[in-house]
Write a structure and sequence with these properties.
InterPro entries: Homeodomain-like_sf (IPR009057), HTH-type_TetR-like_transc_reg (IPR050109), HTH_TetR (IPR001647)
Order of helices and strands: HHHHHHHHHH
Structural class: mainly alpha
CATH class of the largest domain: Mainly Alpha
Keywords: DNA-binding, Transcription, Transcription regulation
Number of domains: 2
DNA-binding region: 40-59
Helix content: over 70%
Domain HTH tetR-type: 17-77
CATH architecture of the largest domain: Orthogonal Bundle
Number of strands: 0
GO molecular function, one term: transcription cis-regulatory region binding
Shape: elongated
Largest sheet: none
Length: 215
């Protein structure tokens, strides 16, 4: 009897966790299309075809549900790139462009509507800043590694390069600039900060990425 109860409880818990993940997946999709403000708990319940009672049992607050959905998107983006120090100048340069591409891709996954909704919202602005800090820190680190290998021009500093890039990237994403157009712009701008004799390596890398369908 005890064993049967234990098995039933595990089964119920597993079913609840499955529904919970399905709700998170649904919300991820919806907020990236429509933003935060148009999404309501009633709308989520209707879209998922679950009762509002069930939804509120799983997620007592809309804010916590959206934060969890945002965290999942951000975690997947972070896991898509290596953050350990590269062993060579070529790898440092490659890592720099991979990090930049991943950050641009993340912002475009969120989309212009969601970014516009989150920026002035006290509930979500800290999340944006936290993600920005993560990517900014690693991109500056990659720029500094390229600088240490003698691949970058002496001026401007890695911090100034990153500051300008991040401001432009975020604002363009909010304005709805096409992903391919923005990725190309970022690559061209970043390419211009490398020494002339090193640009050939960059063009070779980007050409390989294009052939693989990465660009």
């Amino acid at each position: 009897m005890v064993a049967e109860c234990s098995t039933r409880h595990r089964s119920e818990r597993s079913a609840s966790e499955q529904v919970r993940q399905q709700v998170v997946d649904y919300v991820r999709h919806e907020i990236c299309r429509y933003g935060i403000h148009r999404l309501t708990m009633d709308g989520i319940a209707r879209g998922m075809r679950v009762s509002k009672r069930t939804l509120y049992q799983l997620f007592p607050q809309k804010t916590s549900l959206i934060r969890l959905s945002l965290d999942e998107i951000a975690r997947e983006a972070r896991q898509s790139v290596a953050v350990e120090p590269p062993p060579s100048a070529e790898k440092a340069m490659q890592r720099l462009f991979e990090l930049l591409d991943a950050y641009v891709s993340l912002l475009h996954t969120y989309g212009s509507v969601l970014l516009t909704d989150m920026a002035p919202d006290a509930d979500y602005e800290p999340f944006i800043e936290s993600e920005k800090d993560f990517w900014y820190r690693h991109i500056v680190e990659a720029l500094e590694q390229c600088h240490a290998y003698g691949w970058l021009l002496k001026e401007p500093t890695p911090q100034v390069i990153a500051d300008n890039l991040f401001h432009t990237i975020f604002e363009q994403c909010r304005q709805g600039v096409d992903f391919g157009e923005q990725q190309l712009m970022c690559r061209v701008v970043l390419r211009g900060f490398f020494r002339r004799e090193k640009i050939g390596y960059i063009d070779e890398l980007l050409a390989v990425d294009t052939e693989r369908g990465i660009a």
